[in-house]
């Protein structure tokens, strides 16, 4: 049918008090892009929609972790290619913070992709600071298990 | 919800025909305010019409404001735009200050409606120095190198082997 107004007016709360049509419609609106029966059949759709909403909540945290990892990977790749800091992004970012260059990972990865010469200059600052202050975490730290002073 | 949802349009921040980069053309053609002369829900609207409407119309000569007094109806504003977009908004039980703010939002909109923004930034020229390529940081001497080449035999960050370290220690000793 094309003209549904008269039929739907019959379901208006003024005529019918307990009509689950509208409550179910809320769920079906959220399942409109699902595959197969989950789109149209109530008992399947309600389960899938509830799971989808849980994924949305969990995904907010995951999205932040994924972007953080992606940016770290890109900064490490750019830094390793240039060769001055072979350890990757941790050392570079620590050196930058100590040099008061407070760029975040998103900005640094954007520069590594779109402004490679700027990224090289920033990498040089980090490399010099790394050599000066021994920023690399394991450099200069002796292995454990040796007690007392060596001759 | 998800970006693939059919109901939420998604896109990037745009201005129609780069509005505002050169000159700015207000995109709102007309606003139609429907209200009731007596019902309580229209109180804010009536206050707006009495005190702020004339000033609003004077400040926005490009936007036409129509008033439709309709008995026993909730107050509503419909804004129509140059790109044939249309925004409907209820003003029921809204205080006058809030109505002024919402009309300001409608006035400065462009008729695209609610959208899920994938990014709040957009640029047609993301790179000034040129994007990274595998050849960006390579020395240009590689263009005229002939192969086989002794300099390219070993990996670039090769550390000395244990034999070489011991040899060096012996040489330094003597």
Automatic annotation (TrEMBL), chain A:
GO terms for cellular component: ribonucleoprotein complex; ribosome. GO terms for biological process: translation. It comes from the Eukaryota. Transmembrane segments: none annotated. GO terms for molecular function: rRNA binding; structural constituent of ribosome. InterPro entries: Ribosomal_bL20 (IPR005813), Ribosomal_protein_bL20_C (IPR035566). Keywords: Ribonucleoprotein, Ribosomal protein. Pfam families: Ribosomal_L20. PANTHER family: 39S RIBOSOMAL PROTEIN L20. Belongs to the bacterial ribosomal protein bL20 family. This is 39S ribosomal protein L20, mitochondrial. It comes from Folsomia candida (Springtail). The lineage of its organism: Eukaryota, Metazoa, Ecdysozoa, Arthropoda, Hexapoda.
Automatic annotation (TrEMBL), chain B:
The keyword Ribosomal protein applies. Belongs to the mitochondrion-specific ribosomal protein mL43 family. It is found in: Mitochondrion. The lineage of its organism: Eukaryota, Metazoa, Ecdysozoa, Arthropoda, Hexapoda. Signal peptide: none annotated. InterPro entries: Ribosomal_mL43 (IPR039927), Ribosomal_mL43/mS25/NADH_DH (IPR007741), Thioredoxin-like_sf (IPR036249). GO terms for cellular component: mitochondrial large ribosomal subunit. Residues 37-110 form the Ribosomal protein/NADH dehydrogenase domain. SUPFAM superfamilies: Thioredoxin-like. GO terms for molecular function: structural constituent of ribosome. The keyword Cell inner membrane does not apply. One of its GO terms (biological process) is mitochondrial translation. It comes from the Eukaryota. Keywords: Mitochondrion, Ribonucleoprotein, Ribosomal protein. This is Large ribosomal subunit protein mL43.
């Amino acid at each position: 049918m094309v003209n549904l107004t008269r039929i739907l007016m019959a379901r208006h709360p003024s005529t019918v008090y307990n009509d689950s049509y509208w409550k179910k419609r809320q769920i079906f609106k959220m399942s409109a892009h699902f595959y197969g029966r989950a789109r149209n059949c109530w008992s399947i759709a309600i389960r899938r929609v509830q799971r989808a909403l849980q994924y949305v909540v969990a995904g907010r945290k995951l999205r932040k972790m994924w972007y953080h990892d992606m940016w770290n990977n890109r900064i490490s790749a750019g830094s390793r290619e240039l060769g001055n800091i072979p350890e990757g992004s941790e050392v570079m970012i620590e050196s930058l913070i100590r040099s008061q260059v407070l760029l975040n990972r998103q900005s640094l990865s954007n520069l590594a992709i779109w402004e490679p010469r700027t990224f090289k200059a920033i990498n040089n600052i980090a490399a010099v600071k790394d050599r000066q202050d021994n920023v690399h975490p394991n450099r200069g730290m002796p292995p454990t298990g040796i007690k007392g002073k060596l001759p | 919800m998800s970006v693939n949802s059919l109901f939420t349009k998604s896109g990037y921040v745009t201005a129609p025909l780069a509005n505002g980069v050169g000159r700015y053309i207000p995109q709102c053609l007309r606003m139609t305010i429907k209200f009731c002369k007596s019902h309580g829900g229209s109180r804010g609207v009536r206050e707006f019409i009495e005190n702020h409407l004339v000033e609003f119309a004077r400040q926005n000569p490009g936007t036409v404001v129509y008033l439709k007094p309709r008995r026993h109806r909730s107050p509503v504003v419909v804004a129509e735009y140059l790109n044939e977009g249309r925004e409907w908004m209820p003003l029921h039980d809204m205080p006058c200050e809030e109505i002024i703010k919402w009309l300001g939002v409608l006035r400065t909109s462009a008729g695209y409606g609610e959208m899920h923004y994938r990014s709040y930034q957009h640029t047609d020229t993301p790179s000034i120095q040129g994007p990274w390529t595998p050849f960006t940081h390579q020395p240009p001497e590689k263009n005229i190198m002939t192969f086989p080449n002794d300099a390219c035999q070993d990996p670039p960050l090769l550390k000395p082997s244990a034999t070489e370290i011991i040899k060096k220690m012996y040489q330094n000793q003597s």
